[in-house]
Design brief:
Elements lengths: L27 E2 L2 E2 L17 H17 L15 H12 L5 H16 L7 H4 L2 H18 L2 H10 L15
Antiparallel strand pairs: 1-2
Length: 173
Amino acid sequence: MKRTVPVPLDISSDDDDDKPSPSNGTKDLAGLKRPKSETAVIMPVKNVVTEEFLIKTAKMYQDYMKQIPIPVQRGSVISFTSWSGLAKSMKQMYQQPLHYLTNVRVKEWDQMRSDADINGEPLDTVIHPCKAESNIWLMEEVHRLTTSHQFLAKLWLANPMYNASIDTVSPQL
């Protein structure tokens, strides 16, 4: 299917601008004359993220994360092959998000593991699942209770893809 080529509008200022015509951008709609307007180029709106906006967002995020209690009762033993897989299973089992910094850390741990070429062996045979889960919950507690929102905002400002490591947060307190 061929596309039609757009016809350029003539926006030059001639003396016959009073007559309605397609070339001068005016129309005679039921006897009403629309004033001539210049053609405007519409630029897509960019979401400008300022440091002030990120500080506010990080403060709200950190305040919310502080309110979520760390589970005291553990569900069951979770088998896993990667740190990210364990974190995902924990989120599902306990129905709560993990902190941005925890998500970043488990991704780094997976990267360190793949760099060490011990990737083939399931992780739950290397470290006991209860110890691994406890380790993530301890780290989560530190991140929830002690992280500065200014520090988070600086990290987010430096990483335009920070949203990829933030779990959806829906207050259900």
